[in-house]
Design a protein that fits this description.
mainly alpha; 6 helices; globular
Amino acid sequence: MGTWDAGPFDNDAAADFAGDLDEAAAGEREGIVRGALTRVIDTVDYLEAPESEVAVAAAALVAAQCPGGEPADPVYGPEERLPDLTGLRDLARQALDRVMTEPSELMELWAESGGGPWRANVLQLQSVLLPQPPGEQLSPI
């Protein structure tokens, strides 16, 4: 696992995912993010770490467009403009829930290496992705 820190884009799989988004046509980017989230949600057996890392990065991109969300990583995150991803908010939350549910290789790997900061980052993303009270506006990128 090529991981250098606990952030959503601080690993090889997520950085590659960001590169794939940059190389994709603008009209395909939302589908790529959606696909990364649904692949993890649909995994009922052992969830491999690379798929989880991509899903966490995808969820971070959705959260970045929500109130209270942090901007995507300026170094390893996508450079190209993304479409409005706020419609994927529920999928992003479900994907993070799945990453944090056994059997999940990424969760196990972080537990073995004292993954408190990683877990805190995922919990922060989950809180940003919670449903908004009526009338609260979502912010653009």
